[in-house]
Amino acid sequence: MPEQAPIEKQEYNITVYTENHVGLLNRIAMIFTRRKINIDSLNVSPSEIEGIHRFNIVINETEEVVSKIARQIEKQVEVLKVYFNTNEDVIWQEMALYKVPTDIIAEKAKVERLLRENGARAVVIRKDYTVFETTGHREETDNLIKVLQPFGLIEFVRSARIAIIKGSDGFNRKLREFERAEPGQDAIENEFLNSRDNVFSM
Amino acid sequence: MLTQEKQAPALPETDTMISGSQALLHALSVEGVDTIFGYPGGAIMPIYDALFDFPGNMKHVLVRHEQGGIHAGQGYARASGKVGVVFATSGPGATNLITGLADALIDSTPLVCITGQVFAHLLGTDAFQEADVIGITTPVTKWNYQVTDATEIPEVLAKAFHIARTGRPGPVLIDITKNAQLQKFPFQGYKRCDHIRSYRPKPIVRKEYIERAAELINSAKKPFVLWGQGVMLGAAEQEFREFLEKSGIPAAWTIMGAGALPSDHPLNVGMLGMHGNYGPNVMTNECDVLIAIGMRFDDRVTGRLDKYAKQAKIIHLDIDPAEIDKNVKTTVPVWGDCKETLPLLTQLVEKKQHTEWLAKFQEFEQQEIDAVIREELFPTSGEMTMGEVIQQLNELTKGEAIIVTDVGQHQMVACRYAKLNHTRSNITSGGLGTMGFALPAAIGAKFGAEDRTVVAVIGDGGVQMTIQELGTIMQSGVDVKILILNNQFLGMVRQWQELFHERRYSFVDIQSPDYVTVAKGYGISGRSVNQRADLNDALKEMLEHPGSFLLEVMVTKENNVFPMVPQGCSVSEIRLK
Ligand SMILES: Cc1cc2nc3c(=O)[nH]c(=O)nc-3n(C[C@H](O)[C@H](O)[C@H](O)COP(=O)(O)OP(=O)(O)OC[C@H]3O[C@@H](n4cnc5c(N)ncnc54)[C@H](O)[C@@H]3O)c2cc1C
Ligand SMILES: Cc1ncc(C[n+]2csc(CCOP(=O)(O)OP(=O)(O)O)c2C)c(N)n1
Ligand SMILES: [Mg+2]
Questions:
Q1: Is the ipTM of this complex over 0.90?
Q2: Which of B189, B248, B258, B457 has the CB geometry, 3.0–4.6 Å to B426, for a possible disulfide?
Q3: In the predicted structure, residue A184 carries a pLDDT above the cut 80
Q4: Residue B270 CB contacts under 8 Å (≥ 6 apart), including other chains
Q5: Quick one: A183 and A86 in the same domain?
Q6: Residue B139: which of A18, A30, A78 has the nearest Cβ?
Q7: Could you tell me the residue range of the domain that residue A174 belongs to?
Q8: Are A57 and A16 contained in the same domain?
Q9: Residues with a beta carbon under 5 angstroms from ion ligand 3
Q10: Is-catalytic flag, B492?
């Protein structure tokens, strides 16, 4: 942890590498609920390594709270590793789907232009409705809602955030270390020595 | 008497068909389990059936309530340093374990609890005695797992024991569906677990930190050690003592750490925290280097955090990285098992004596003796005090007994004044503060340390929470000395009402049954005294009695425990009255 942790709340992206274990989602979620912290976004997916899952969790908190939470998560037996990063340190995306009446879209050429400007792409086109998809940051997907609202937006849904850490080398090498009974010092980072990595722990 | 070497039954040969239940019992026996505390029921019947004629001499103690069972498991673990094992059935049997799991988690007590569960095909159907045990126990276990197939049992049990006892220890619960208990499978042997790739019980110690810590210690003028249960959990009592004796630093304890260094060691300056000693609390805000060893800066210890040891450089030796910087920001974090970090530190610290600094603690002690202790331990008139009972007990046991305490005023008094010569001799519910803990925990402690005298010090409130465990004592014949300090009040709450709620004694006036008669009903001898003149004789009778004995001592009703750091105050605002 840097000496002077910022005290304001901001968005943090918590990345968790875990074993595939029934009940682990609950165990991790409880770490937040117990402290009455709202999870803004949660995505669980496979990772670059077979059998290892990756959680992407977004919360709005101070660095101090996030770092404590990260340690509590990493303490869970099936958790391999936890990282936390601000938005600047990650590449992140969310995907959104929009359902609009096809007749209106077809009638108004303007709509098509707006969609193109917003990077949207048609996924399904039917007689009665069309589903568009766009991927981007929150403001971008939000923006398209506003754009489509006047044209009879029927349904909207946005996915959880997924994020890639800019400075990460992936998890393969670390995992091999973890598999050894006596991992080298590299894997057993000491948070207190690697303070600038935002990597917490072992 | 010849004690027979405990012989574990031979493991079945590879590919022998055995049931999940048998596999479980073999796992326990390879793990060295000698005592199980449990209570049967429908969903765990196949395991009990296998236990009925399981070879070897694994004992099963039939408790009277699953909460009693798990507290007994905790007492066993705390006294012996081994993993406590508890059996319970599904549904209500399992939910009765929750308090004990929460208690064991917060106090880092190693347990493996086995619960029966409905058949796998019935999971989620609201079957008879079905409860979502994994869901309910997730926040109160270090790890839990549901077994639905017998072939998983050996590996899961091996993991369970490894996780329970290593790193920062804690409770593990394994929920086994009835079909898995019954299912026969070709046994493939039992391999103890010593590595789980996602689990690092302790880090490799970084020498840089040891060096920085040693530099700070060597240049300190007023160093002060605070130690906690971690010293015992790491079995580092000897290493701790060597560190202290070389560095000459005065050391104070949390109630969970009491006994890791004998009470009368010259560097032992007493108890920390809300009801701790005067000197250690005041000096926390006077020292220049504070060395915390295996303690987690609980709020009962620190009082108000923004006024806690702000002047000091802080060195924190802890095995759990989540504890470092959690409550108190450290200058030098020494992350690791103190069994390893302490000797490294001892090598680098200079041999010293801090005579003048130590003398300051003695001055404060004298003030505390004059203001509080003399009157509490050696009153000559008036009704009896809790302190004098503990003082006389000390004289009779000479500090050799294991003292198990419940929660309340008597707990604070017993922790403050009990003389402890040995480690693992003070067993109490610290983090959760569970009333009803002491009686069953004392039963477990006796099974875990059969050659020691075990005295349970309990209040008139707490004893009524798990009094049914007298039945366990009766049936198992275990020798536990039960000392009830009866102030006819929920005393600790009454004290707060007196001090902070204008003496509005709201529902703290608790009545007691005739304890001696109750004990008699269970075939346990007992006595009740209300005169100072009888106290010594009664204590002697209790201690010399062959087998369990219940002694009720009527003590003064409205005594308060002092010193006290009132909630929300800093440790230097400790009150002597
Ligand atoms: C009514 C009441 C009043 C109380 N008043 C007081 C009071 O006045 N004073 C007081 O002290 N307590 C008091 N308590 C108890 C208090 O609530 C805490 O339970 C207690 O202070 C915790 O002590 P601890 O930190 O030593 O132990 P634990 O909570 O057991 O913590 C142990 C620490 O050691 C670490 N550790 C474990 N193994 C190792 C290892 N191998 N190497 C290094 N570190 C390790 C753990 O990670 C943990 O941080 C009171 C409780 C009650 C119910
Ligand atoms: C299960 C539980 N319920 C309530 C409390 C709150 N509580 C703490 S101390 C105490 C009073 C204990 O009374 P008693 O057992 O008579 O001990 P005394 O303080 O009188 O020595 C109570 C009610 C608790 N710690 N545990
Ligand atoms: Mg009482």
A1: yes
A2: B258
A3: no
A4: B252, B253, B276, B277, B279, B280, B361, B365
A5: yes
A6: A30
A7: 10-90+164-194
A8: yes
A9: B 459-460, 487, 489, 491
A10: yes
Angle at B360 between CA B313 and CA B236, to 5 degrees: 55
Note whether B195 contacts A: Cβ–Cβ < 8 A: yes
* The residue to which tokens 């789980």 are assigned: B196
Domain spanning B2-186: CATH 3.40.50.970 = yes
CB distance B273 to ligand 1 below 6 Å? yes
Would A5 be classed as within a structural domain? no
Q: What is chain B's mean pLDDT, rounded?
A: 97
**Is the CB of residue B143 less than 8 Å away from at least one CB of chain A?**
yes
Once rounded to an integer, what is the mean pLDDT over residues B517-532? 98
Domain count, chain A: 2
Q: Tell me how close the Cα of A140 comes to any Cα of chain B, in angstroms.
A: 37
pLDDT of residue B6: 53
Residues contacting B225, CB < 8 A, separation 6+: B244, B249, B250, B251, B252, B291, B292, B293
Per-residue pLDDT at B2: 42
Q: How confident is the model at residue A195 (pLDDT cuts 50, 70, 90)?
A: very low
Same-domain pairing of A36 and A50 = yes
Q: Is B564 in the pocket of ligand 1 (CB under 6 A)?
A: no
Q: Hey, is the C-beta of B325 within 8 angstroms of any chain A C-beta?
A: yes
- What is residue B347's DSSP assignment? H
Look at A175 and B208 and tell me if their CB atoms are within 8 Å: no
User: Is residue B490 lining ligand 2, measured as CB closer than 6 Å?
Assistant: yes
Which positions 14-43 of A are in contact with B (Cβ < 8 Å)? 18-19, 22-23, 26-27, 30, 34
Please tell me the pTM assigned to this model.
0.96
Catalytic, B542? Answer no
pLDDT above 70: percentage of residues in chain B: 99
B125 contact partners, CB below 8 Å, separation of at least 6: none
Q: Give B 329-388 residues with CB within 8 A of chain A.
A: 333, 335
B383-554 folds as: Rossmann fold (3.40.50)
**What's the token pair of residue B439?**
């009686």
Amino acid present at B245: E
Over residues B386-442, the pLDDT tens digits come to 999 999 999 999 999 999 999 999 999 999 999 999 999 999 999 999 999 999 999
Give the C-alpha distances (Å, rounded to integers) separating B302 from B222, B330, B432, B567.
19, 14, 17, 10
Whether A15 and A80 map to the same domain: the answer is: yes
Q: Which residues pair with B375 in a beta bridge?
A: none
Ligand 2 pocket residue status of B446, Cβ below 6 Å: no
- pLDDT score, position A106: 80
How many angstroms separate the Cα of B98 from the Cα of each of A72, B70, B199?
A: 21, 9, 24
Question: B160: CA distance to ligand 1 center in Å?
Answer: 24
Q: Does B474 participate in catalysis according to the annotation?
A: no
Query: How many contacts (CB atoms, under 8 Å) link A and B?
Result: 67
